[in-house]
Amino acid sequence: MKVDLLLGLQWGDEGKGKIVDVLAPKYDIIARFQGGPNAGHTIEFDGKKFVLHLIPSGIFDPKTENIIGNGVIIDPYILMGEINGLRAKGIDPAKNMMISKKAHLILPTHRMLDAAYEQSKGKNKIGSTLKGIGPTYTDKVARIGMRTMDMFADDFKKKYVALRQKHMDIAKSYGFDPSTLMLDKMPLQAYEEAWMNAVEELKEIPFIDSEYYINEALAEGKKVLAEGAQGTLLDVDFGSYPFVTSSNTTAAGLCSGLGIAPSKVGRVFGIVKAYCTRVGSGPFPTELFDDDGQKLRDVGHEYGSTTGRPRRCGWLDMPALNYSVMLNGVTDLIITKPDVLNDFDDVKVCTSYKLEDIETKQFQPCNNNAVPVLTNIKGWKSDLGKADEYEELPYAFQEYIRFIEEQTKVKVSIVSVGPDRSETIVR
Ligand code: GDP
Ligand code: IMO
Ligand code: MG
Q: What pTM does this model have?
């Protein structure tokens, strides 16, 4: 068997969590391969709403095993909070979740450094979620990080204290005062104590060599779906650098983040919102600053799942989408949130950019001055949520899907028409 991959094709928040939850019953294993608690994946069913940060979105299907892979970075305090939050609602993730021994740990002082770096950037700040993502991946690559397997070693505390001291020295060199820091409403020291307690509590979850576990499962004929976090345009190599996250959010991240060979990758599901959103700073060519932008934000409830910040909103961007399709080798497109456009007379789509005196269809991840050339598409002006089958969707909407398919040369396999699990049309 091969691993199927599901990832976001924009700047995150495309609806990955919802779709993974919908697909989970078809898979034996759901595995996260990169990112950390910067992610916020929302799932709704039976009138209940959950937001997951580190736990894979297959957790609500009791038959599915959920793996946090080696490429993910973990804050034990946040993960335990998530586990206990689910337990309070009658779901025990300890029953069907495992964690890679090689996943790196986010220390409280990694979060402190995130704050120190952002503060030092002033107006040029990235708009990080401040979960310690950049500093933790930095230590991983610098070969001084700590991994989950270290939690079980005799010298855990010694290693922790030494790394913490390094972080304190760096913060000092940035002129950052740790006594001003609040982490999840706690001063640093209180957070560190809570973090240490969480390390002990987390040991009840099985820690495994997930690369062996997953490859052996594939050899036994089991079905595995890898769940991406963030989006392609936030990739550390291909995104709008430096306004990106610190991992490879693209298909490449799957191989290193789970130990999957390229020859073992099957279908690649690319999720795209029917318009664009972005949280944090960085170029966004189709961004709207007018009433249409506010309407997208209001109707689409575009406020961050992790930080609550208002998301920047704009029209769908074809050069960006084609770039993401190319980088990931997308085999199936999944469109989410077209219902947010139900009430628009016209829907606009960017098909190229004007750059001084040339026009180009190439995405410009780092260019703040690309002027989008927009095409008008007639709105469907009806409630998409009423349809159960693809054929029941209004003709004007089907035309819009055909337009996307023509532009990308990829079939749209799933259309999501509302946040609930049931509001999903599989073609
Ligand atoms: P993720 O990070 O990619 O999992 O996406 P988020 O959960 O951060 O943001 C997507 C938001 O849109 C969540 O609030 C979802 O409940 C919601 N959502 C997902 N699909 C749809 C859809 O088709 N229509 C509407 N209206 N909302 C959706
Ligand atoms: P999901 O998985 C949207 C953005 C942040 C910031 C930049 C760097 O829910 O789609 P970081 O905390 O990684 O240092 O932030 O990346 N960002 C996201 N935006 N969805 C996410 O995850 C994001 N994770 C990080 O807003 O601009
Ligand atoms: Mg999100």
A: 0.98
